[in-house]
Each structure stands twice: as C-alpha cells, then as structure tokens.
C-alpha cells in the first residue's frame, strides 16, 4: 500500500515537473527564434532553439515515465535533459566571452576619444 502511494506521489510530481519543463522549453524556443532573426543573433538563437527542443523531448520522456514507470523512459529523459543543459552551458560560456570582447572593443574604440578629451584646454 505504501509503495502505491509513493508511486502515485512521484507520478504527480513528475507530471508537474514535466509541465513546467514544457512551459520553459516553449519560451526558450521563442527566445531563440527572436534572436535568430538577425545574423549575429542566430549564433546564440539557433542553439537556444535546439536546447528548447531537447528540453521538450525530455519533458515528454518524463511524462511517459510517470505513466509507465519504465526505467527506459527515465533514462531517455535524463539523457535529453543532460543534452539540453550542456547546450545551455555552452551558450552561457560563449555569451560571457562575447560580452568581455564587446567591453574590450568599446574600451579600445573610445580610448583615443578619452585621450583627446583629457588634452583639451578649457
């Protein structure tokens, strides 16, 4: 009796998690599509779309596991979720690097202007 109650609670929890994953995945895909409108934005947008698709697939596999309790579905869900998070990790690292490059480029671009402004006599 205790085991059935535990399985039912796990099933409900996994279904809620799967629903939240689907919701998040849709917005990750939309965010990626909006970024992919521009050529430069596509560098980040396309990987976001792939991450969102993997997250949706993972949510579906979790939902299948909640209904069947087959470990094959659970393993599939974890593999797809791991792939989605790996893609997101790469996007985060690349984004941080691009931000530092952009800050350095802006600093280098405005450095001559700052030097000329400091030599200006009032």
Commentary on this structure:
With 122 residues, this protein is mostly helical. The chain has one domain. The chain is built from three helices and no strands. 20% of the residues are buried.
How would you summarize this macromolecular structure in one to three sentences?
The chain is mainly α and 122 residues long. It contains three helices and no strands.
SSE blueprint:
Elements: H1 2-35, H2 39-68, H3 71-118
Helix pairs in contact: 1-2, 2-3
Which structural traits does this protein have?
122 residues; mainly alpha; 3 helices
Count of distinct structural domains: 1
Radius of gyration: 23 Å
Biggest sheet character: none
| End-to-end Cα distance | 87 Å
